Structures are given as C-alpha cells and as structure tokens.
Amino acid sequence: MKRLGLVRTLKGTIIFLAVMTAACYTAVFPQRIREAGMEYNISWLVTPGIIAISASAIPIAIALALFWQICTEIGRDNSFCHKNAGRLTGIGFCALVDTGYCAVGTVTIEILMGSPVWVLGLMVCTVGLAIALAAFLLSHLVLKAADMKAENDLTI
User: Fold this and answer.
1) N or C, where is the chain less crowded by C-beta within 10 Å?
2) How far is CA 5 from CA 2, 12, 14, 82, 89, in A?
C-alpha cells in the first residue's frame, strides 16, 4: 500500500473508531447504566454513573487526536520524527489513565452492586495495558529511528 493510501485508511479507521465511541458513550453506556440502576435498585447512582463513564471518553478522544496527528505526519513523509515519538508516548499515557480509571470503576461497581462485572473490567484493563505497552514501545522505536535519520541527514 502506498503512503497516501495508508494515510487514508488509517484516518478512515480513526473516524470509524470516533463514531463508534461516540455511539457507545451517547446511547449504549447510558442505557446500560439506567438498566443497572433499575435492576439493582440504585437509581440514585444513574446520573453520577453516566457522568463518571463519560469522563473516561476524554483520554480516548485525546488518543485519537494524537493518532490523527501521527497520520498527518506520515502523509507528509515524516513518519520518524521526535513529535511522533512524543505523540505515541501521549497515547500510551492516555491508555494508562483510562485503564486505571476502568480498574477503579470496576472495583466500585463490584462493591456497590456485587455483580460479576470484574471479569469484563479485567479484560478491558488487559487490553488497555497492551495498548499502553505497544504505544510506549513504538515511541521508543520511532525516537531511535528519528535519531538515526537525523544522523544520516548530517552525513554527506
């Protein structure tokens, strides 16, 4: 796949992920929280629950924006640059923040409702940690490649 085709595919994927995330956070999650509030007789926690789950969308939005910027640099044929390494580190930190937030939320739900949601929370946390590790690893590799590129640019 050529560079521009790759960039279009990646940006299309980012748009798809943003739309799916928005759909989950505006329709699916609030509805499930309302249902759980009625089922477990904790309707007083529905609004705080919706607000709490909505806060977890912030790191996701930041990570998608950083990924968009990385794709823009790839489109400019500047894949291996210090900015992209920093952006990948930012994506890693967003994944860690969201993973920690998910872990706290999972424990809170377990304490309040006694439901076996911890299994799903554990899976989400595992995926979040994998994304964070991959982003940090890629950041390191891009930084090394950017340094090698800068060194080669100085060579005649």
Assistant:
1) C
2) 5, 10, 14, 23, 25
Cα R_g (the chain), whole angstroms: 19
CA distance 69 to 87: 8
Instruction: Give the global pTM.
Output: 0.91
User: Residue 63 CB: number of other CB atoms within 10 A?
Assistant: 23
Alpha-helical runs (H) found in 24-117: 29-39, 46-55, 57-75, 82-113
Q: What whole-number distance in Å separates Cα of residue 124 and Cα of residue 146? A: 32
| pLDDT (average), residues 26-34 | 95
What pLDDT digit, counting tens, does each position of 83-127 carry?
Answer: 999 999 999 999 999 999 999 998 888 888 777 788 889 999 999
Chain position carrying tokens 């991959």: 134
Q: Which amino acid is at 76?
A: R
Can you tell me the distance from the alpha carbon of 2 to that of 121, in angstroms, rounded to the nearest whole number? 38
